[in-house]
Fold this protein.
Amino acid sequence: MSPQVTVATLLVGGAARLLELPAHGFRTIVADPPWDYRDGLGRGANYTKRGAEAHYALLTADGVVSLPVGRLAYVNAHLYLWTTNAFMVQAHGVAASWGFEVKTILTWVKKGIGMGHHFRNNTEHVLFGTRGTLALRRRDVPTAFHAPRRAHSEKPLEFFALVESVSPGPYLELFGRHARPGWTVWGNEAGKLASQLMLVKP
Ligand SMILES: C[S@@+](CC[C@H](N)C(=O)[O-])C[C@H]1O[C@@H](n2cnc3c(N)ncnc32)[C@H](O)[C@@H]1O
């Protein structure tokens, strides 16, 4: 059975467990790192003591870079890398270090306004990068997509539908918490939100 149509494979653990996955086994990789605001780089628009660190362990940009993502991706592959506004520069460095060239930036536009020091955040961004040559399945998808807010840090199902419509499997989600049919999901909380995998009504 091809990895695209199997149920989710969950891999809970640290970087070492990533090496258990097949080398060059994934054509499309989504990553949503726990960017570490405490390292001083990101104390900006999104920083709050009640922010990410209250919810899960954080990882420095160097820690994210050190993950063997280049080894996991097909030679011809797509990357979707979530970043906050404060970590936009570091995220470009991470994508490059994993061997991807950033081609464009997608933006999740949320309803209402959030926290923020200078401007109030109602967007999050995803760097889209490519390695080698892998055609997009379609070229009519706008760079902005609208979806309701979900639980803290939780990314919308609309985004995963977008990824599947544009990029081919096998699919890997790094730092995921949902079991996601057809995807291999890795993260220290993988499967935590499995029971909540449903669309939120706008
Ligand atoms: C930004 S959240 C991802 C949220 C996810 N995209 C979702 O929609 O639910 C980052 C995740 O990475 C996990 N994490 C933190 N440090 C980790 C590490 N060293 N190895 C694996 N996962 C880690 C956190 O526990 C958290 O679940």
